Amino acid sequence: MVHIISHFLVPLIVAWFFYRSKWKLAFLILIATMVVDADHLLASPIYDPNRCSIGFHPLHTIWAIAVYILMFTIPFYLKSGRLSEAGEKWNFRIQLAGLGLLIHMVLDGLDCLI
Fold this sequence. Notes:
Layout: H1 2-18, H2 23-32, H3 62-77, H4 85-113
Helix pairs in contact: 1-2, 1-4, 2-4, 3-4
C-alpha cells in the first residue's frame, strides 16, 4: 500500500515544489505516466508482490529507462528560445513525462530493494 501511495504522493510533492506556477498541470502529467504499468498485463501472473518490475516488464527495462532519461534531459537543450510557443508547451510536457517515468522507475526500484 505504501508503494501505491508513493506513486501519487511523490509526483504531487515534485509538482508542488518544482513547478508551483503550473503545479496542477505538472501533477496531471506526472500521474499520467503511471500508464507505464500497463506492461504488467503481459506478465503471468499480472501481479506478483515478490517480483521486481525493473528489468522484468518491457517498459521497465534499462533501454526504456534510457529513453525516459532522454525525454527528461533533451528538453533542457531545446530551451534556448528557438522554439515557438507551441513547441515550448510540448517541450515542457515531454520533459515532465520523462520525469514522471523516471520517478516511477526509482520508486519501483526501491521496491526491489525491500
